[in-house]
Each structure stands twice: as structure tokens, then as C-alpha cells.
Write a structure and sequence with these properties.
By secondary structure, the chain is of the alpha+beta class.
Length: about 850
């Protein structure tokens, strides 16, 4: 497959739910990847271009045609302009045509359906019959969504296709609906071959696809039907898609990295003037600043007490100490020994209450985020996993019985097997029963308010129990494994594949490949489950892994993590680099870098200064001198900075390294390691809507390094602020709102050294003022807040409360008259329901 100059595209054609769901940490090496499309169809060759845009990259700015000034009048709302001319005028790197339109005069038109540009709605949503038109929305935080949009409230950027109409019989659906091809019922003219322009998004809303197909050109391109367009987008991981204006309007202009221009071949022979345009502009970013929030983490096994600063050994006291070292990420052991730290409906609870939910609230007080660290393959120690793995039929808290066939068994005598430690029990992650239970658990975690993400650990088989025998691992030749391996076309593994040398070595290789694929499938299914629960965005999805998966010493563990990446089921790679010298740690990191491609890497580091582990600065030096500079880390484990003999020294060293050696994040105006209300206030004081030239003292405000501080920098700052507080996926939804509500504190508060993660205005308290700010950042609309007086019912008393002390009922970040109208409408709707027959 050819790619336009300057980009190398590696396409993964393994189709799975996880591939459809995609990751917040994009696999793209560049913010815009453009590829040539050449497809053989029943009607002939179809050609076009597909752009894949990484919306998590802060350099990406989405542009939509602005409202013309002055307005054209006469029933028109747009001035007609070709896509090449518009791209040049706005400085976009990529541009296509957008909405359908009706020409009013030779130079003006009426755009059909929703059209919004930078918060200004130029054309409202259109609806004929049951559904509004399908439309693409891009939020202020650069999160994308596609749906049947009937309201323009809170819309930032939007373009639309067309839904049902009186002029034809096409129902007017989306091209792709939640991973299903619905192109045959989309508009316009779905069954015939035409030039096409379409847009699509992944499930997380972090990747935007823009497709143009040429057509009606003999010996070049015959065009595509809408089902064919949908098929093509599905192959790339699209979750939802909408067809835009096509035919002679289809235009695709791309300025390559070398500044040469690529243009498609329009069917008219020249570019048609159109009403609206969609573009992507790459902003320059400050050369010295990183664009993603750093991972500065530690692994923690949860102590028995959650809250209580100053209480020795409590989780909160640990957080208060770690904060002084600059730690911002807690990888809290959430699933281990078959028990769950959260209030799980899947596995038995460890504490009998929702420890995880309380830990998220406590960590936020120190501007820390919590990741659920899950030891997925190690599901028993002593008797703790009996309810899952015992042959006695002991059930879990929901009455589900365990399955002894899930266990990894010692091949020699059939006993339960672990990593050589008495009492350990590993499960066969390839088993469908194990995978189903884990996927269900990951969906549960995905829905948790305020959870930053999930980290997989022990995603493997245990080590070899006897390196002197002919069996290079405890292969768990259980009944299911033997039957399934034979069903897949191989022999009985116990008799034909149990040895790595000799006459059956080829069968052994087959079994290794098959088993590694089973582990990969487990990871794919776990990520699919997490994405289901985490409907707005995928969060930080990471895995602690062995740096070199192809080292012979690691083969028996079956951890082929590059295949997890190939199946789009691993975002952040955390290689466990526990060697005894700086050189060896660097070599481990380089091995991981080789196999990780463009995936983010956070180094897993061990107790500094102890046997076989260099001191802290030596380990950090290995990270920064690797083939790719690594500044993200997770330490094993937290006691390095709390109770170890040199803990105070290590805290000071790490904080100094963060302040003086690590790269600051874009938007961190005051360089304190956080992008919080202090930075927000500083930016808004300096920039009040009027562009100003930079000075030596204001360079940190010039986020795109163009020597002027303006709205482009404000947009970059807002994106950085959103990602720091609400997650790398750029999604702000109901889970974030609930996390903020969970952290509400009484009174006005006093400003502490570490602002609460949810203290968005910096007054030292988390209250309605912060909730109002969050409303303004929402990327996923939430239901109206009708219970104004908070008495649990919605009635006329809420209207009185709204008059006395108004709130943001419609959750758009503003308190205005429309809130009262929304409240009245909501109350009346409830009254009508109460008057229905039978009520």
C-alpha cells in the first residue's frame, strides 16, 4: 500500500472489538497519517485518500468554516468557496468539503443541517421525521463523537450529513452504527457508485477518520457505494461514521510535511465551490515542553486503613509523603490473589467495602490519580482463590461456583502450580471461562468515577518449575487445553508437543505459538471489557511486562506483548527493568523500545540502592540515556520513598530530578509539575481575548511557539488542562462529574500546597463553583440538573430555588435564563408522565 510522502503506515487488519474500541494512547507515529486508497470493487477500481487524525495530540486543531461576516442574507448562511481556497485562507494542513447545501445565488448557499465553528452555531440541527441528521461533533477538548444530534447546546465544532427526507426513500442513517455497517440505509444514493466524502470516529472519540473517494472518472476511479465506504472505515477501526456531501463536491487537499500539496481528482474536472469545509491544522508546540501528562508513579499494595493524614501506615498518609517527592500516579493493587479491592460484583471483595472508591477520593486531595493494578493471571494464594479454583465447588458472593480446570497444573504430577512459591495459584488465561470473568471485571472498572486507568500484571504463565527436565514450562495440559488444541487442527499436546527438542519439536513450536495467541486473546478481551464500561474514552491502559518477549528465558511465560499492540490492546508499555547496573537497565529499556513501536513507555524501576539494584539517580540516568529518552516511571514500590532507610534522600533526589532534569508539560505555566487552577488563572489574566506579542517573560504562555499569545494558545491550554484533570483521552463525561461530586468538601476551604485534583478554581475546596467549571468542559452532554434544591424530587419548589439561587441546569458551564426554561420544561414533562393512564 502506498502512502503519501513523509508517512509510513502500518495497517493492522486483525478485526476484534478491541481494535474497534481503540486506545486513548494512539498507535499513530504522526498526528496526521494520509494513505492512498486503491480498492477493487465489483464495478472496477476505486481510488481515494484516507486521513487518520490523532485527536489526543495537542498540536491537532480542528477547523470548520466560520460564519461569514457580514451574513449573506436572502435565505443564505454561507459564502461558496472551493476547498483549496479555504484551506489556504485558514492555513489548514488538511481540508475536505462538509455539509450538503442548497445554492441560493452564484456565490451564496444555505447549508443543510448542523454547522458550528469554534462555539458559534451557524446552522441549527435539522430534523425530518423521527431522527435528526447524523452529525460529527468535535469538542473544545478535541474529543469526537458522531450521532443523531437534535440540539446545538454546548456544541463547539460540528458538520452534518443528512437524515430522512421527503425527496427520496433512503432512511438516512449513519454509515456505521456502533461498529455495524449501516451504509445501505444511509443517504444519499447508497447503492450506486459515486464520489464520496465521509468522516468516522473510534469508540473513544480519540481518532478521527476523513475519507474521500474519487468517482465518475474513466480509467481512474468508479466511486463507491455507501456500504463499501463503511466496510473500508470499519477495517481501520471506525465505530461510528457519517456520509457528507459527495459527488462533484468531494474534495481532499493535503499539505504534506515537505509543504508540497496533494489534491484529489474531482469528478467535474475542477473543484466545486461548497458551503462548508472541515480542516485539520497542526499547531507548532513549544519545543521544550512535552504534550502528554507524565506518569510519575509507584506500585502500592493497599494498607488496611484508607483515610487519615498523619496516621502511620494509612493510604492517605502514604500519599501525603509521596506528594513531596513529586509522585502523581498511584498504581493501587486492585485485583490480587483472586480478591478485588473495589466493591466488585465479579470477584469476592478483600475489604468488605469499596476501598478503591475511597482511595480515588483520598489520592485526589494530593492531585494524584489512581490506576487499578490487576494481577490477572495470579488468582490464588493459600485458600484465597478457592472460590474460583477449588474442586470442592465453593461459590463466590454471587453464588457462582469455581472451576478447577482454570488452574495451571504441574505437568509432572498434576498439582497446582505457581512461580515456585508455596501456595501460589495461577490460572490459564487462554481459557474462555477465565477470559469472560476478567472481561466482566474490566467493564466494572471502566465505569469507575475518577479512575485513571488499568494496569495488567502477571498476564502470563508461571516460570518453569524444573529447568532440568524436558518440559520448558508447566503447560497446564488440562481437559479444555488438550481438546481445544486438537480441535484447532493439532495433536494431543500431552503426547506430541510436550518437549522442546527431539522428533516432536515442530509440534512444540506450534503449541507455543498457539498458547501465546491465547494470552493475546485474553488481553484483547479484557481491553474490550474495559472499553465497554469506559464508554466515553479508554483511559490509561497499560501492562507491566518483561522487556524482551523473545528472550528464550521468557518464552515459557507466553507473554507475546508485541501481539497485544498489533491487536490495538496495549497503550502504555511498562517494562520491568530490575537489573543490577545502569547499562543492563538501559539494555532492558532498549529491548522494550525496539518492540513497542510508537507506544508510550514508562520504566518499571526497583528498590534503589539495595542488592542488585543501582541507586535512584543511576536508574533514572539509564532511562534518559536509552535509545528513546524515557521520563515516565513506576517504582517498585512506594516504601522506597516512605519507610526505607534512605527514603528522605530519595524523595529529595526525585523531586529535584523532576524540577531540574525532566521535561515540563505544555500548559504548566508556573513549572510546579501540575496544570491546575493556578496556571488557568495566570493564562486567563494574561490573555483576555486580545492577541499579544510574546516577551521573554511570557514564553510559557505561547504554547504553539508562534510569537503571539492568542486563541490558539488558549485552545492548547484548555486541552492540556482537560487531560491533566480528566484523563489522557480528552473525554469529560458523567464519570468525571461523579468523581468531582464524590470529592465535595464543605466550606470555602484554604489553598493548600497540593490542590485537589477536582479543585478547578483553586480556592482550596471542591464545591459547586468547580462543578460549574467542569460543566463548561463537558465533551459528553449530561442530563439536565433539575433537582435544584437537592431534596430528591423535581417539582415547582425547584423553580423557586432557581429564582433564589440559580444553578447551571442545562450543564453548559453558564448560569443564564435558558437554565430556567430547561427546568420548567423538565418539570412539565414529569407532570405529563404522571397524568398518563394507569399513573
Amino acid at each position: 500500500m502506498r502512502t503519501h510522502t513523509g508517512f509510513a503506515v502500518g495497517l493492522n487488519l486483525v478485526i476484534s472489538f478491541a481494535a474497534v474500541a481503540s486506545l486513548s494512547t494512539s498507535a499513530l507515529a504522526q498526528p496526521i497519517v494520509v494513505e492512498d486508497i486503491v480498492r477493487t470493487t465489483p464495478g472496477g477500481i476505486a481510488r481515494g485518500s484516507l486521513a487518520t487524525i490523532d485527536l489526543t495530540d495537542p498540536r491537532v486543531q480542528i477547523l470548520v468554516t466560520s460564519a461569514p461576516s457580514p451574513a449573506p442574507g436572502g435565505g443564505a448562511d454561507a459564502n461558496l468557496q472551493t476547498v483549496p481556497a479555504w484551506r489556504t485562507a485558514v492555513g489548514a494542513d488538511l481540508a475536505v468539503n462538509a455539509n450538503f447545501f442548497s445554492t441560493i445565488t452564484g456565490s451564496t448557499a444555505d447549508a443543510i443541517g448542523l454547522w458550528a465553528s469554534a462555539g458559534t452555531v451557524v446552522s441549527p440541527p435539522r430534523q425530518y421525521g423521527s431522527f435528526p441528521d447524523p452529525a460529527l461533533l468535535i469538542s473544545l477538548g478535541n474529543n469526537a463523537s458522531i450521532g443523531y444530534i437534535g440540539s446545538s447546546a454546548g456544541v463547539w465544532n460540528a458538520v452534518a450529513g443528512v437524515g430522512p427526507s421527503a425527496t427520496d426513500a433512503d432512511p438516512g442513517t449513519m454509515l456505521i452504527t456502533d461498529g455495524v455497517n449501516t451504509g445501505a440505509t444511509a443517504r444519499v444514493d447508497p447503492a450506486n457508485r459515486n464520489p464520496r466524502t465521509a468522516v468516522a470516529v473510534n469508540a473513544a472519540g480519540t481518532t478521527l477518520y476523513i475519507l474521500e473517494i474519487d468517482g465518475r472518472l474513466t480509467n481512474w476511479s468508479v466511486g463507491m457505494t455507501l456500504p463499501e465506504v463503511a466496510d473500508l472505515l470499519l477495517l481501520r477501526g471506525a465505530w461510528r461514521a457519517v456520509n457528507l456531501d459527495g459527488g462533484g463536491s468531494s474534495s481532499f487537499i493535503y499539505k504534506r510535511p515537505d509543504n508540497t500539496i496533494f489534491q484529489n481528482r474531482p469528478s467535474d474536472g475542477s473543484f466545486r465551490t461548497v458551503a462548508t469545509h472541515l480542516g485539520v491544522k497542526l499547531l507548532a508546540s513549544a519545543a521544550t515542553d512535552r504534550t502528554e501528562r507524565p506518569i510519575r508513579g509507584v506500585w502500592i499494595r493497599p494498607p488496611s486503613i484508607v483515610s487519615g493524614v498523619g496516621t502511620s501506615g494509612s493510604f492517605e498518609n502514604i500519599c501525603s509523603i509521596l506528594a513531596t517527592a513529586g509522585i502523581q500516579d498511584i498504581f493501587l493493587e486492585t485485583f490480587y490473589w483472586g480478591l478485588a479491592t473495589n466493591n466488585s460484583q465479579v470477584y469476592n471483595d478483600r475489604f468488605g467495602y469499596d476501598y478503591l472508591a475511597q482511595a480515588i477520593v483520598v489520592a485526589a486531595k494530593y492531585s494524584m490519580r489512581v490506576h487499578a493494578w490487576c494481577e490477572v493471571g495470579y488468582q490464588g494464594f493459600g485458600t484465597t482463590g478457592d472460590y474460583l479454583l477449588s474442586a470442592s465447588g465453593v461459590g463466590d458472593q454471587n453464588g457462582r461456583t469455581g472451576d478447577p480446570n482454570w488452574r495451571v497444573l504441574n505437568i509432572s504430577n498434576g498439582t497446582i502450580f505457581g512461580d515456585g512459591t508455596a501456595g501460589q495459584m495461577f490460572v490459564n488465561l487462554a481459557h474462555p471461562g477465565v477470559q469472560a470473568r476478567l472481561s466482566e471485571f474490566m467493564a466494572e472498572l471502566g465505569a469507575y468515577p475518577g479512575l485513571a486507568g488499568v494496569q495488567l500484571d502477571y498476564c502470563r504463565f508461571p516460570v518453569d518449575n524444573n529447568t532440568g527436565d524436558v518440559y520448558p514450562g508447566p503447560w497446564s495440559y488440562d481437559t479444555w487445553t488438550r481438546a481445544q488444541f486438537q480441535a484447532d487442527g493439532f495433536g494431543d499436546p500431552l503426547s506430541t508437543a510436550a518437549r522442546s527438542s527431539g522428533p516432536n519439536s515442530s509440534q512444540w513450536t506450534q503449541f507455543v505459538t498457539w498458547r501465546r495467541g491465547g494470552i493475546t486473546n485474553a488481553v484483547v478481551n479484557m481491553f474490550a471489557g474495559f472499553s465497554t464500561g469506559n464508554a466515553g474514552g479508554a483511559g490509561v491502559w497499560s501492562a507491566a511486562i518483561f522487556p524482551d518477549p523473545f528472550n528464550s528465558a521468557q518464552t515459557s511465560k507466553m507473554q507475546d506483548w508485541p501481539s497485544w499492540i498489533a491487536n490495538n490492546a496495549l497503550g502504555t508499555v511498562v517494562p520491568m527493568c530490575y537489573s543490577n547496573t545502569q547499562t543492563n537497565i538501559r539494555n532492558e529499556l532498549n529491548a522494550a523500545i525496539t518492540n513497542a513501536g510508537s507506544r508510550r513507555i514508562a520504566a518499571g524501576l526497583a528498590y534503589p540502592g539495595e542488592t542488585n539494584h543501582p541507586d535512584l539517580l543511576t536508574q533514572l540516568g539509564a532511562c534518559t540515556s536509552a535509545n528513546r529518552r524515557i521520563e515516565d516511571f513506576v517504582w517498585f514500590e512506594y516504601s522506597t520513598f516512605t519507610t526505607k532507610s534512605n527514603a528522605a534522600t530519595y524523595r529529595a533526589q526525585l523531586k529535584n530530578w523532576i524540577d531540574t532534569t525532566s521535561t515540563a508539560q505544555i500548559g504548566d505555566i508556573n513549572r510546579d509539575g501540575y496544570i491546575d487552577a493556578r496556571d488557568r488563572a495566570a493564562f486567563n489574566i494574561l490573555y483576555n481575548g486580545t492577541p499579544i506579542a510574546t516577551t521573554p517573560g511570557t514564553l510559557r504562555y505561547d504554547l504553539n511557539s508562534d510569537n503571539v499569545i492568542n486563541s490558539a494558545d488558549q485552545q492548547l491550554f484548555n486541552q492540556a488542562f482537560i487531560r491533566f484533570h480528566f484523563g489522557e483521552d480528552g473525554v469529560v463525561d458523567g464519570r468525571d462529574l461523579q468523581a468531582l461530586l464524590n470529592s465535595f468538601t464543605p466550606g470555602s476551604g484554604s489553598i493548600p500546597q497540593y490542590l485537589n485534583l477536582w479543585d478547578l478554581n483553586g480556592d482550596g475546596a471542591v464545591n459547586y463553583a468547580d462543578q460549574l467549571i467542569l460543566h463548561g468542559y463537558l465533551t459528553v452532554p449530561q442530563p439536565p440538573d433539575l433537582d435544584v434544591n437537592r431534596d430528591g424530587t423535581v417539582n415547582i419548589n425547584d423553580i423557586y430555588a432557581q429564582i433564589a439561587a440559580p444553578i447551571d441546569v442545562n450543564r453548559n458551564g453558564l448560569i443564564q435564563s435558558s437554565d430556567t426554561r430547561t427546568l420548567v420544561t423538565g418539570i412539565r414533562a414529569g407532570e405529563f408522565q404522571d397524568m398518563a393512564p394507569g399513573r
